[in-house]
Amino acid sequence: MVVEDNPPVKLKGVGDGFWITLDPSMPESILKEDLVKLFERLRHLAINARVVIDIGGAKGYDGLVQNLSSFLKTRFDVGIVTTPPEKRSIPVERIRQRDLNRGWTSHRSEVLMLRGRVRSGQKIEAKKHVLITGDVNPGAQITAGGDILVMGRLLGHVHAGYPKNATAIILALDFRPSQVQIGEYVVSDLDAQKTDRVEFASVVNEGILVQDYLGVNPFGRLPWPEVV
């Protein structure tokens, strides 16, 4: 006996009805033959049952679906025959507006990575490290238990090493934050100017010092990769 690995028609019970998944590229006669085999087993269960015909989102088969719907109603007295409801997608603009009105809090992952602009009034919180590929506007707040790395312009309030980790660093391609805090050390009068250097802040001699990343290379002291 030959068993088809992928039959053109599949049937399963769903709630008070049945869900038919079929291959619309097959000849209509073949599909009807398979439907007869499946529905004859159901007998009285098919009467007035709700039926969904699912062709997997294929286009241009409205006539086929209508013919099969009429066939099932006439041959097996099924009830309402429909196609799967369209999945609702959230418009991009609504997603952006939703993100503007909220912040992000991550306590599951060790690293929170975000892409895009962090705007004024938004708050970012992470258990450990934060990596942002974008800008941080004035008025935005970022708090992390570990390092904060901004692959863009940093102009907001940042607190790395929360609450008392003084070994954390804050790095940005354009380093001009309005306030910096690392562990318990705070400075808000950096008077940073735009430069062509990648800069980072760290705690040095009981104070916060901003230095050239390439010149100091704060990660160069690590002898091998570490899981953080």
Automatic annotation (TrEMBL):
<dbReference type="InterPro" id="IPR005526">
    <property type="entry name" value="Septum_form_inhib_MinC_C"/>
</dbReference>
<dbReference type="GO" id="GO:0000902">
    <property type="term" value="P:cell morphogenesis"/>
</dbReference>
<dbReference type="InterPro" id="IPR016098">
    <property type="entry name" value="CAP/MinC_C"/>
</dbReference>
<keyword id="KW-0132">Cell division</keyword>
<protein>
    <recommendedName>
        <fullName>Probable septum site-determining protein MinC</fullName>
    </recommendedName>
</protein>
<comment type="subunit">
    <text>Interacts with MinD and FtsZ.</text>
</comment>
<dbReference type="InterPro" id="IPR036145">
    <property type="entry name" value="MinC_C_sf"/>
</dbReference>
<feature type="domain" description="Septum formation inhibitor MinC C-terminal">
    <location>
        <begin position="114"/>
        <end position="206"/>
    </location>
</feature>
<dbReference type="InterPro" id="IPR013033">
    <property type="entry name" value="MinC"/>
</dbReference>
<dbReference type="GO" id="GO:1901891">
    <property type="term" value="P:regulation of cell septum assembly"/>
</dbReference>
<comment type="function">
    <text>Cell division inhibitor that blocks the formation of polar Z ring septums. Rapidly oscillates between the poles of the cell to destabilize FtsZ filaments that have formed before they mature into polar Z rings. Prevents FtsZ polymerization.</text>
</comment>
<comment type="similarity">
    <text>Belongs to the MinC family.</text>
</comment>
<keyword id="KW-0131">Cell cycle</keyword>
<dbReference type="GO" id="GO:0000917">
    <property type="term" value="P:division septum assembly"/>
</dbReference>
<dbReference type="Pfam" id="PF03775">
    <property type="entry name" value="MinC_C"/>
</dbReference>
<keyword id="KW-0717">Septation</keyword>
